[in-house]
Design goal:
312 residues, seven-stranded mixed sheet, 50% helix, binds uridine-5'-diphosphate, binds magnesium ion
Length: 312
């Protein structure tokens, strides 16, 4: 039996690119010998003609499957739904706007055949993206990597080819607000980087306004790091040190008769900074517990087994 490739494509108000996207992706897939294929489109609550156009295509082509959401749940949710329903052995995730060229799929597939299990697209060049987008992405990945406990490759999006095994693991994760590119990196397996030039969006405009970018950035940082919670601990220590500095300063100025401090200043300042510090430290203690509760609530497995030998 032939192996199968599944391509997952989320769409949100993409009526301008539906036909072109279908054509380019299926032309590529048709030409790959000895493989069956399916393309799963997810209509993420678009109210334009996206769904109607997709249905037209699915009527004629049985390799096309559609999942349509009741409203807009966001790009990550759309991909999450798509990969739940894939039936292929190798799964490609890509954007509808053809910024990730489908013509690269055969090369990625070769890497997969040679044993790579996650082949993630890394952008060499970003055509037609604003300076703001490029800079904010750079900043985001630096902060993310400084904060988080795992390494998340810079300049990668969700464009990747993934082995069935890995998809099965991701599908088992119950957490919400997924940051997929982080999870795909976190699960391990044989990861290979695949350099490519990111193209200009073919039609339409970006469906990632500032608000959605912030949500994605927040999900990325919060789901891979509890460091922001623990930062209060440092603030607390700083505040307590400050209270001692003020105390020493006051004693010196009394001893050397500098006499410029108003009566009562020292006691108030020292008390405020000292107890602010104590409170922050207590908050930090609480954050340690909360971060443990948070880790448990994500219910990620403690380990992922790739193979077992002589064990049923
Ligand atoms: N998308 C989606 N739901 C959303 C926003 C975007 O399904 O709420 C899809 C969109 O149709 C596209 C992909 O996610 O296929 C990436 O979006 P876009 O190209 O607008 O992002 P950008 O490339 O500008 O970062
Ligand atoms: Mg795009």
């Amino acid at each position: 039996m032939n192996k199968k490739i599944s391509v997952v494509i989320p769409m949100y108000y993409e009526q301008e690119v539906v036909d072109l996207c279908y054509e380019r992706v299926s032309n590529v897939l048709k030409k790959i010998n000895n493989y069956d294929y399916e393309i799963i489109f997810i209509n993420d609550g678009s109210k334009d003609n996206t769904l109607m156009l997709l249905k037209k295509i699915a009527d004629k082509d049985k390799n096309i499957k559609i999942i349509s959401f009741s409203k807009n749940f966001g790009h990550q949710a759309a991909v999450t739904a798509g990969i739940k329903f894939v039936t292929g052995d190798a799964i490609v995730i890509m954007d509808a706007d053809l910024q990730d060229p489908p013509e690269l799929i055969p090369d990625m597939l070769k890497l997969w055949e040679n044993g790579s299990e996650v082949i993630y697209g890394k952008r060499k060049k970003r055509d037609g993206e604003s300076i703001f987008k490029v800079l904010s992405a750079k900043m985001f990945y630096s902060i993310l990597n400084a904060m988080s406990e795992i390494e998340i490759p810079k300049d990668t999006g969700d464009f990747r080819l993934v082995d069935r095994k890995v998809i099965d693991v991701i599908n088992l994760l119950p957490e919400h607000n997924k940051f997929l590119r982080g999870l795909f990196s976190w699960v391990g397996f044989e990861q290979t980087e695949f350099l490519y030039d990111r193209q200009k969006r073919k039609y339409g405009k970006t469906k990632y306004p500032f608000k959605k970018m912030i949500k994605l950035a927040k999900d990325g940082i919060m789901s891979f790091s509890t460091k922001p919670l623990k930062l209060v601990g440092y603030l607390g220590i700083f505040s307590i040190i400050l209270s001692f500095v003020i105390l020493v300063y006051s004693i010196c100025s009394y001893a050397f008769k500098l006499n410029h401090l108003s009566p009562g200043w020292t006691s108030i300042m020292v008390t405020i900074t000292f107890f602010a510090g104590v409170q922050l430290l207590v908050l930090w203690l609480l954050s340690e517990y909360i971060s443990r509760i948070y880790d448990e609530s994500k219910a990620r497995p403690e380990y992922i087994i790739k193979e077992k030998i002589n064990i049923d």
